[in-house]
Amino acid sequence: MVENRPLGNLAAHLILISGVALVLFPVYIAIIASTHGPGEFMRGVLPLTPGDQAVENYRLMWEAGLAKAGSPPAWRMLWNSLVMALAITIGKLFISLLSAFAIVYFRFPFRLFFFWLIFITLMLPVEVRIIPTFQVVADLGMLNSFAGLSIPLIASATATFLFRQFFMTIPEEMLEAARIDGAGPLKFFRDILLPLSVTNIAALFVIMFIYGWNQYLWPLLITTDPDYTTIVMGIQRMTSTSGDETPDWNLVMAAVVMAALPPVLVILFMQRLFVKGLTETEK
Amino acid sequence: MQTKRMTFPGRWLPYALLGPQVIVTLIFFIWPAGQALYQSLLREDAFGLSSNFVGLANFTRLFSDGSYLNSLSVTAVFAIGTTLLSMSAALLLAVTVNRMLRSRNAYTTLLVWPYAIAPAIAGVLWWFIFNPAIGIVPYALEMVGYRWNHRTSGGDAMLLVVIAAAWKQIAYNFLFFLAGLQSIPQSLIEAAAIDGASPTKRFWTIVFPLLTPTTFFLMVVNIVYAMFDTFGVIHATTQGGPAQATNTLVYKVYADGFVGLNLGASAAQSVILMVIVVVLTFVQFRFIERRVNY
């Protein structure tokens, strides 16, 4: 800051506090709503202070779910989300590390072709090829399975490029020294490249876990069995009740809080890795 | 493209290493995209028993179809609204946070976490706040004489999905603006201050022009986000309604193909979307090449 302006500072704090309040507002309302009994929602506008039904609402949602809306218990949906997010994250990291290693440390015919093939995936998000991708997964018998939920999403151009860029910055001498000591490619990969990449892997892990956890369209398409409902799409099902019936907002909001908590905690506790992952994947 | 000066020998190993990525790409990306291209040239009969080649008829039909043209303009309004709202809020917050010394990290933490919220959940949150019967905002609006109802008013519904989509994206824009601001040399700002330029003048004549690369980059990213990543916001709230007022292109592909089962038309829409992504990706990468050389 260049000059000292007490009034300017005051105004700045006011702007920031109202910004933070606006950003927090929807989540505050959700938390409040999840602590009231069902009756509160019949009486017109929602109260702004916490109620006393929090334990009941969360326990009911966790253990039983919302049977009338066809929703399984929250623990199962959270578990499904966790398995899907971890499978997508680990799959993406695994195949991207291997392909970046191949592209940087080997010379072979069609290297450039493969590089562009991977690049093209950037231009083909699921959203633009919904029906044919669904047909492929259906033909392979992967509907209603964790394999179907995760494998089609694990190709990753961004992760491959990030690792490629990072590998290019590793000094040539590393490889020369390793080769003189007689290390083969796989040993070099495991004992030198992987340990050096730990920070990058962790940063990408944070970003991709959030990406995986928040998947919506894909699980919606390929799972019909409630045993595979993930929490993010489960919430949509709970809100879309038939006809004039209103959703059980207190339970829906309890589910919303539980669905948002894991990725938010990941960001709060790994903020530095998150920022690193976010800014580097977009370069 | 570069490799290392020294590389490993190996005839089969590199292919084996690339194998998993290439197989997934071919099966789940290239093949379906090819299928979409192929199906976009076919038309199925009413029972789905046979299909015949119709050339570009699916495309010409789309562009004379009122609901598709409506969807194009809805998407444009939605993308521009989301981008403008989210970027201007994020820029204001980033510039303000950048003035702070001690409280910068605390404010940053408080502002970035909505990045973790899924678009569908952001939609449900705002859908609840704006619920005409029990929501807090319609209640407040009622007192100033406005009857909010996104179930009947297309404008209200559009505003709702724009707010939900922009809210989630503020964190992302904020982080990039903050990084951009911190890379501006402090000496430029100090020199201007010594010459007597006020903070407002310094912002518009020095800071904002130097942020142009960040702003442009974020514009492309936000348009891509609004067009392709907000399916959840629409599907979990308005479902394209009322009267198609929020029927964006991606939602329409889903609705026509998956719910309406009109494969030819849906495939043609997919192809148009692919062209849009290719153009946007091209713009983004061209620009990044330039930024590296700055």
UniProtKB/TrEMBL annotation, chain A:
Pfam families, per the entry: BPD_transp_1 (PF00528)
Domain annotation ABC transmembrane type-1: ranges: 78-270
The organism's place on the tree of life at top rank: Bacteria
Alphabetical list of InterPro entries matching this protein: MetI-like, MetI-like_sf
Record's subcellular location: Cell inner membrane; Cell membrane
Membrane topology of the entry: Multi-pass membrane protein
Transmembrane segments: 12-33, 82-106, 113-134, 146-167, 188-211, 249-270
BP-aspect Gene Ontology terms: transmembrane transport
Family matches, as PROSITE patterns: ABC_TM1
Keywords: Cell inner membrane, Cell membrane, Membrane, Transmembrane, Transmembrane helix, Transport
GO CC field: plasma membrane
Family, similarity comment: Belongs to the binding-protein-dependent transport system permease family.
Assembly: The complex is composed of two ATP-binding proteins (UgpC), two transmembrane proteins (UgpA and UgpE) and a solute-binding protein (UgpB).
Function (record text): Part of the ABC transporter complex UgpBAEC involved in sn-glycerol-3-phosphate (G3P) import. Probably responsible for the translocation of the substrate across the membrane.
Name of the protein in question: sn-glycerol-3-phosphate transport system permease protein UgpE
Source organism of the structure: Halomonas urumqiensis
Gene it is expressed from: ugpE
From TrEMBL, chain B:
Subcellular location: Cell inner membrane; Cell membrane
InterPro entries: MetI-like, MetI-like_sf, UgpAE/MalFG_permease
Name this protein carries in UniProt: sn-glycerol-3-phosphate transport system permease protein UgpA
Pfam families in UniProt: BPD_transp_1
Record keywords: Cell inner membrane, Cell membrane, Membrane, Transmembrane, Transmembrane helix, Transport
TM spans (from-to): 12-31, 72-95, 107-129, 157-181, 202-228, 267-288
Gene3D superfamilies: MetI-like
Signal peptide: none
Record flagged with keyword Heme: no
Superkingdom: Bacteria
Membrane topology: Multi-pass membrane protein
Subunit text: The complex is composed of two ATP-binding proteins (UgpC), two transmembrane proteins (UgpA and UgpE) and a solute-binding protein (UgpB).
CDD domains linked: TM_PBP2 (cd06261)
